[in-house]
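@channel sequence for tomorrow's demo:
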Amino acid sequence: MVMMANLNQPLDAIRRAIVSAIELVVQVNRLRDGSRKITSISEIVGLEGDSVVMEEIFRFQYDEVGYGEAVRGRFMTEGLMQRSELVKKAHFYGLYEELMQAFQGARS
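structure tokens (generated this afternoon):
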């Protein structure tokens, strides 16, 4: 959208602005039963070269259901990377242990 506005900013500057402005990306999909559900929550970690680095925090794991039934599932996580901004903020506010306990409960 920035490029369409003809602001003539370099692509690298646009990427840096996105990384500094956005912390989380929440993806919503329409599922086969017609419902909309959050399917992924990702954190923007930073830039590596020309690429925006994202780390998926939670993803929606679908349960096996028959055709025509409501889609069910649960959120799964692989945990957080230690370079995560969320982890850094938890350390700063003294909430690191609580954050790690919350992610241990979500892994099951």
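heads up for whoever presents: The helical segments are 11-21, 85-92, 96-107.
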